Fold this protein.
Amino acid sequence: MFRLSGKKRVLKIKFLAVILMCIYASKTYALILEDLIKDGKLESTLSQKKIGYYIGSFDPLHLGHESVVNHILEQNLCDYVLIYPAWGGDGYKNRTDVHIRLDMIFTAFKDHPKVIVTKLTPAELQGALMERSDDLVEGKPSVTTKFKTEYIGITGSDAALDTSKDPKKLSVFMRGIQIPEKYKEHTIGGIIAIPVKSFIVSIRIGDSIDSLKGEFSDRAIIKTIPSDHQDLSSTKVRTIIKNGGTLGQGFVSQGVKDIIEKNELYRE
């Protein structure tokens, strides 16, 4: 039986190791904010970049949400998109536990190298990406971005229209206010955590934002996106499940569907 010499055997092992490294390097994964911090790569990754800040309930995260993110990245409107769920703690909606919704986000975007995911609380997120500013916003201490990063707010037309009618909400929406103790793990904390310079608005079917006249919260709307899934909403997905229906391929990704079924979400 033919056997490799010791030297050839070592060379073969090294060759296989190089092949495995190349295969591993060719795979793409979402950027986990905690890993960037731990590995000391946060500044080099975000420095002088445009980051889309996409907040929402994502209850559940559906293909319409994914389409918005993909469109923004494919059109080079942002270098990265940071997708962040409403944290909870408020009485606005009886949302699914935020950790389950975070699992949906991590699962859906696990192979997107330009998507940033995180499980940091709003206060921790602000602490990682922002630094204190001497300026005041609505009479409150504010923050400014680290690393000369520019943040662009991403929101749906329904949220933009609703918020524009409420001066109180409008005055703090994505303004970069230092998060007070009571909002450190709260939906409002995520809303005020990061100051954005402009907005991208995803247009839901039947909505018109002409009344906003190209601005939202006194900042320019630089792009509107007609969703590829205009008739799709989280409410529609929940209603289908509640009524005993089955989710087809056009509603949520398989990973999100598995999480919904595993946790028996949205049933009567």
Notes: Residues 31-229 form a domain with the Rossmann fold fold (CATH 3.40.50).
